[in-house]
Amino acid sequence: MPTDTPLVASRRQALKRWIDEHFLGEQSAFLADARARGVKLNQGEVSGLLKPNGKSFGERRAAHLEHQARMPKDYLVQPADYAQASKVRPIFTKERRGEDDVRALQVVVEGLVVALLRRVPTSALAFLQDIEANARQRNLSMESGLLSRASNSALAVQRSEEAAAQALRRNGPAPHTKRGK
Fold this sequence. Notes:
The protein has helices at 6-23, 27-36, 43-50, 59-68, 79-85, 94-119, 124-137, 145-171. The protein is mostly helical. The longest helix has 27 residues, at 145-171.
């Protein structure tokens, strides 16, 4: 059985690295991503490309797979050159995925808090007091991530409501005007 040239071995390693870094090492996720974009990749062929001394992995196949998988140019065609030219930071690792999920949840909750408080006038102060009471009851610090963000959002909404109320008291209601006359 013929052995891989250093270039072909490097292509196999680069494909494995791509799947590991972008799909947590799951070939099935790699294939599902391609299918979702309308690209049909054969699972047996991908497995064969990953095996040492496996399926033929020439320049044309590497370039075609780069295109199909939306990899950067030359990621598989010239993997050694690509690796030196740019250090690829993984999009998803198990640790980053967890951190990203927590950050996303914080953003969503913060957005919901602001939207709700703006819909219900003068509710910001009551919401803030409820958060503080619940945090004390459960021995949680108001400085902890999500509680801090929610309370800061509530304070910001409360301040904007107070500023709007103050402007209304100072200037009175806006005059009604008719356009075009």
